[in-house]
Amino acid sequence: MANNHLTGIGSESKQLATWYFTFAAILFGAQLLFGLVAAIQYVMPGFLFELLDFSVARMLHINALVVWMVFAMFGSVYWLLPDETGIETIGIKIGKLLYWVFVAAIVVVVLVYLFVQVGPADETSIWFIHEGREYIEAPRWADFGIVVVALGFVANLFLTGTAGNRSGIVTVLMADMIAFAGLYLAGMFFTDNISVDQYWWWWVIHLWVEATWEVYVGAIAAYGLITMIGAHRKVVEMWLWIEVAMLFGSGILGIGHHYFWIGTPEYWWEIGALFSALEPLPLVAMFIHVLYDWGKTQGAQDATGVEVSVINNKPAFTWFVLNAFGNFLGAGIWGFFHTLPQVNLYTHGTQFTSAHGHLAFFGAYATILIGMMYIAVQGTNGIKVMKHTKSSLWAVSMICGGVMGMTVALTVAGYVQVLVSRAQMGATWAGYFDGQSGMWFAQAMDWRLVMGAVTFLGFLFLAKDLLSTGKNPVHER
Amino acid sequence: MAKTSVWSDNRFWQRSAGWITGFAAVLLIWLTFDTAGQIAMGTDEDLKNGVTKRVPGPTVINYKITYEMSDKRGHEVPYIGGNDGKGGSLFQEKQKFFGRDDYSEEEAAALLHLGKLGSQTKNCMNCHTLLGNGAYYAPDLTKAWLDPAWQDDGTMQAMTGKSTKEEAMAEFLQHPSTYPTHARMMPDLGITAEEAKGLVAFLKHMSSIDTNGFPRNFGKIRGAVNGK
Question: Which of A467, B53, B63, B221 is 20 to 30 A from B152, comparing alpha carbons?
Answer without folding.
Answer: B53
